[in-house]
Amino acid sequence: MLRHDGEAWLDILDFPYKDRAQKPRTTGLTMVIDKGLGLTDTRDLMELASDYVDHLKLTFGTSAFYNTRLLRQKIELVKSYGVHIFPGGTFLELALLQGRILQYLDRARDLGFTGVEISDGTINIDEETRYNTIKLARTYGFDLVISEVGKKDPRDQVSSIPLYEQVNRDLDAGSDVVIVEGRESGEGVVIYDNQGNILDDEVSAMVDHVQDTSRLLWEAPQKKQQQELIMQFGPNINLGNVQPQDVLALEALRVGLRGDTLRHYYLTLQGLEEPVRWPKTAQLQGGARGTND
User: Which domains are present in the chain?
Assistant: First the structure.
């Protein structure tokens, strides 16, 4: 397996932000949303960016449409790169709705998924059912048990308890990570308004009351959301619903190799009023040429 440690550049340059957690890690997780990558595209993603991907979610109920042989191949491919792979919570919600949760967990384990997601983004489930489903998933031996809080449709916000209380209950039940719903769009749901702007009061309420914020994973599909959360909480915040083509761009944000976070690093060094000057000890070498004009 190829390793991507930046060896082509890091012998001459340092990342502006050096405290980025490295794999295997429990903070700074990146969850990629997979809406139907084929084997070739999946392999390309893993070869290019597996060091920067922690979870791959076969979102919605898309894993139902894979040929079984192909699905097993894809799962094993992703696992071979040290990345967790699991089906979307909507699929599990259907299993609960139809009273087939045991069959669902049996099949997910048999197919080789490393994790499952428990959610109620579309259906309503009572607290006992939610708690028992998380506990049951633990007994199946999955490496990763994830739950998700928040409704996908704002009209369905019917929970009798604040979301942060649900997060704490899920953690107590055995969730490794709790996702804060952001949908694929990142608009009009939980911590985002209809334009995708972050609702600071909602974020603050979550952060102030959750027992272990390092186990929150914020779905943040838009670049401006990723940037704002990184600037507020640092490079090791857990982020999800990242598009496959955006993985490296997100990692650049995390370590200060994108204009927005590099600007912050630059300002902390010297401020905008001080331009970068040619170092007195620098000499032109290699293919660089001076002029005599």
Answer: 30-269 (3.20.20.70)
